[in-house]
Amino acid sequence: MRLSAFPLTELDPFTEDQLSKIFPEEPDIQSFWRDAIVQGSKIWVAMFNGRYLAAAIMGPVNQGTVEISVITVREVTRKRGVGRFLLEQMEQNALEAKAKEICILASSEDAQQFLNHCGYQEQMQIFRKKLALTTQG
């Protein structure tokens, strides 16, 4: 069987089980995926031999730009071209939808290296800080 990549049409029990294996550290990942679908995004997966090896969330085209908010490959299948294949299929889909640019937020150094290797250029870093709520008197 060959590697394939496609957007999911539903989140059935099989899909939820497979996604939980891609994201083992996230126990409530299913609600995250459902929210993404409700907001108009597509969940893309890479599949080989009946198993999902990678997953990503791709938003709709907005002013010529597509945002990919998550792209993750199962730990045991990293560095084998699965992530690149998934990203290439999503890029092709974005081109067909008339997108001119893809924007991806990479939160880890591994992700940044992967995206650089795939031809993406870093243009801006996003920094976040959680603020403690205080009552001023």
UniProtKB/TrEMBL annotation:
Q: Which PROSITE patterns match?
A: GNAT
Output one GO MF annotation. acyltransferase activity, transferring groups other than amino-acyl groups
SUPFAM superfamilies in the record, alphabetically? Answer: Acyl-CoA N-acyltransferases (Nat)
Q: Which CDD domains match?
A: NAT_SF
N-acetyltransferase domain mapped to chain residues:
6-137
Specify the superkingdom: Bacteria
Q: Which GO terms describe its biological process?
A: pantothenate biosynthetic process; zymogen activation
This chain's protein is named Aspartate 1-decarboxylase autocleavage activator PanM
Pfam families in the record: PanZ (PF12568)
Look up and give the organism this protein is from: Pelagibaculum spongiae
List the NCBIfam families hit by this protein, alphabetically: matur_PanM
